[in-house]
Specification:
8 helices; five-stranded parallel β-sheet; Oxidized Rhodanese, domain 1; alpha/beta; elongated; 2 domains
């Protein structure tokens, strides 16, 4: 997989037009993003559709950024698996971009998804315990179900609760929230 540093990418952007996609959640993108990035979340990424809509620039490199480089790496693998080799992962992601003092756009802050998951899981465990104690012992099953889900997320790296919470209305952004490149 090809990679590029944030300073190299910024230099390229100064000299020519680049296509930079940010694969973080829309709320993360809205909070802070590279000035030239556009939002295309990883969970709804369709490599073929993206490449088809590049208006004749499909042969040009597609640069992919996230917060730190992990999700953008996953996105690059999706593109490569779909047969598109000219994708480049931005090393260090938006954190490195911001740390290097490169231009960013700041917007509304929101609660991070993992914090929302922790609050929800904690609430459901307490609710299951209270209902199990005061209403019916079968309600303890709710706490067990949430615990099993957390174990599954830990072992697999997939969190169904996070996927569900990410689709909630408060985690959506109106409009694309992207800038043109």
């Amino acid at each position: 997989m090809q990679t590029i540093s944030v300073t190299q990418l910024c230099e390229l952007q100064r000299n020519s037009k680049i296509d930079l996609i940010d694969v973080r959640m829309p709320t993360e993108f809205r909070e802070v993003h590279a000035e030239c990035a556009r939002s295309l979340p990883l969970d709804s990424l369709d490599p073929k559709a993206i490449m088809a809509n590049r208006n004749g620039t499909a042969d040009q490199p597609l640069y992919v950024i996230c917060r730190s480089g992990n999700r953008s790496s996953q996105a690059c693998k999706k593109f490569i698996e779909a047969g598109f080799e000219n994708v480049v992962n931005v090393e260090g992601g938006t954190m490195a971009w911001e740390k290097a003092g490169l231009p960013v756009i700041r917007g509304k802050k929101s609660m991070p998804l993992m914090q929302q998951v922790q609050i929800t899981a904690g609430f459901l465990v307490v609710l299951g315990t209270v209902l199990g104690t005061w209403v019916h012992p079968y309600a303890y099953g709710l706490s067990a179900f949430v615990g099993a889900g957390l174990m599954f997320a830990g072992f697999s790296g997939l969190c169904p609760m996070a996927s569900l919470i990410a689709k909630m209305p408060w985690n959506k952004c109106e409009g694309s929230g992207s800038c043109s490149v």
